[in-house]
Specification:
517 residues; alpha+beta; 7-stranded antiparallel β-sheet; 11 helices; 24 strands; 30% strand; disordered N terminus
């Protein structure tokens, strides 16, 4: 029976011990390895693992395969297939060819992946892991109490770094990459540096995922579930070392670790830490961070969930409306009475365009039209509330002291959309494109309507109905922009249409057509 001495310090650690007598491993009755020099590794929170000297493996191993896994305590594990007489077992064993000092005892030894067909015969040995106890102390207390009061990822990142330094972790740099749920942004990267006065935040686009700096980075390996990465930077780096390691070493870093921060939905985010202390990180340092990583991950998950909710609301209902919904206006009937200019802009001849272009090209055109209209509306102080088929519904809330500003912004948007159509047509290979736009001004309800389980944040009121009907009327008269009289401060350059009878609008509307080039 192997006997070990319990480590004097309780906490995260690695212990490698020799096993007594012969130890064997079988696969479906086939002896794979037999050794009297096998070792067992005890690592906090993980089941004991038995390692065999490579010379005592009795069956052929393949050359190294592509699979690698990474551990900040042990190093990089390289995998091999087992080549048996009647089968080849993929990725069946791993070897740490060059371990970190904490795991030097298993350098070059072979570990066998345990499954239902693999049996380990320990002989006279009993595996008895040491009691590592519970890691607790000021950092844990802070995470469970004070950290909950921090309301931004930036403030949490900064406080976390300072708390780690207070606990003796020789930290020079800390970063967290948290993936997001956003149509354009892949995630947020928060970087703390000891010599920097503030947290650096970047929001890379999805282009990041195909760029060499990500493809050849520890972030990619960790986020794919291959474990943590560690490199001692004061040593010579291999030729294929991650480029970021050279950058960090030039900045004075001596030790670098990237470890997973799993979210509850299965996504794996990444936390990296770097030290510039001559001895780098200790096992106790990294063990403390590793033990706290699940709690740290939950904080970032809460932050990202809020950002995701905000970005999704902004994507689907607009920035101003999204903020109101996120602020608590979530019940049917919640909303305000506001004065606003309403714009309803419809792309003309959509049925014919789809037939001529084909579905895919038409959708690309439609997306281009929506992108153009949305950008123009946003730049003029309005907000697109929704896309209805091939039409855009936008609102320009009015300042009671400057009501004509909203009306002029709406009219400027309508004109700019018309002016942008020729370029959009050329990009699509069309001779021309036209839209039909209606503008109206008045009091509307701006809020939630719908069923108890399905709500829509929109505008309801006569002005919204009039804007939609004026757009339809413009189609019949060959005008691309038709407005109600109260939209215009100076109608001298407009074409009077008189009192127009509109479908389902009780009173005629004094209207004007706006000349377009």
């Amino acid at each position: 029976m192997n006997v070990h001495v319990k480590p004097p310090a309780r906490g995260y650690g690695i212990l490698v011990e020799p096993l007594s007598g012969p130890v064997r491993v079988f696969r479906n009755g086939v002896l794979l390895a037999e050794s009297s020099a096998a070792k067992v590794m005890y690592e906090t929170r993980l089941p004991p693992t038995v390692y065999f000297p490579r010379d005592d493996v009795l069956v052929p191993l393949s050359e190294r395969v592509a699979l690698q896994t990474f551990c900040p305590f042990k190093g990089t594990a390289c995998y091999h297939d087992l080549k048996l007489e009647d089968e080849r077992v993929d990725n069946a064993v791993w070897i740490y060819e060059n371990t970190l000092p904490e795991a030097a005892g298993i350098t070059g030894h072979v570990g066998f992946v345990q499954d239902d067909e693999t049996q380990l015969d320990l002989g006279e040995n009993t595996l008895t892991p040491p009691d590592s106890g519970n890691i607790s102390g000021p950092l844990i207390d802070w995470l469970l109490r004070e950290a909950a009061m921090l309301n931004t990822p930036e403030s949490f990142t900064e406080a976390l770094a300072e708390k780690l330094r207070e606990q003796g972790v020789q930290l020079a740099r800390l970063s967290v990459l948290a993936w997001s749920l956003h149509p354009m942004i892949a995630g947020k990267n928060y970087v703390w540096k000891r010599r920097s006065p503030e947290i650096i935040v970047t929001a890379p686009s999805y282009d990041l995922l195909s760029k060499p700096q990500y493809q050849n980075s520890p972030l990619r390996h960790v986020s794919q579930g291959l474990g943590g990465v560690r490199h001692r930077l004061h040593r010579d780096l291999p030729d294929d070392a991650f480029p970021i390691l050279q950058d960090l070493r030039s900045e004075g870093a001596t030790d670098y670790v990237a470890m997973p921060l799993p979210f509850s939905d299965g996504r794996i985010n990444v936390m990296t830490v770097a030290s510039d202390h001559p001895d780098g990180f200790t096992t106790a340092n990294l063990g403390l961070i590793f033990e706290c990583s699940a709690v740290i991950a939950r904080y970032y998950e809460v932050f990202m969930q809020r950002e995701n909710a905000q970005s999704l609301l902004e994507t689907y209902v607009g920035k101003r409306s999204g903020a109101r919904v996120l602020g608590g206006e979530i019940r049917r009937g919640d909303g305000d009475e506001i004065d606003a200019a309403i714009m309803f802009c419809d792309l003309r001849n959509s049925t014919r365009l789809e037939e001529d272009l084909g579905r895919d090209a038409y959708i690309q055109l439609l997306n281009g039209f929506f992108e153009t209209a949305s950008t123009i509306v946003h730049d003029n102080g309005g907000e697109v509330l929704k896309f209805i088929g091939d039409a855009v519904l936008a609102v320009f809330p009015a300042d009671p002291q400057k009501s004509y500003r909203a009306r002029s912004q709406a009219l400027a948007s309508a004109r700019a959309i018309v002016d942008a159509l020729p370029e959009l047509a050329r990009d699509t290979g069309l001779a021309a494109l036209q839209c039909a736009t209606g503008l109206a001004y008045g009091s509307v309800t701006y809020g939630n309507v719908g069923s108890q389980e399905r709500l829509d944040f929109t505008v309801i009121g006569r002005a919204a109905n009039v804007a939609a009907r004026l757009g339809e009327y413009g189609k019949t008269q060959g005008h691309q922009i038709v407005v109600s009289a109260d939209v215009l401060k100076d109608p001298s350059n407009a074409i009077p249409l008189g009192e127009v009878e509109l479908h389902n609008v009780s009173r005629p509307v004094n209207s004007y057509a706006i000349p377009t080039s």
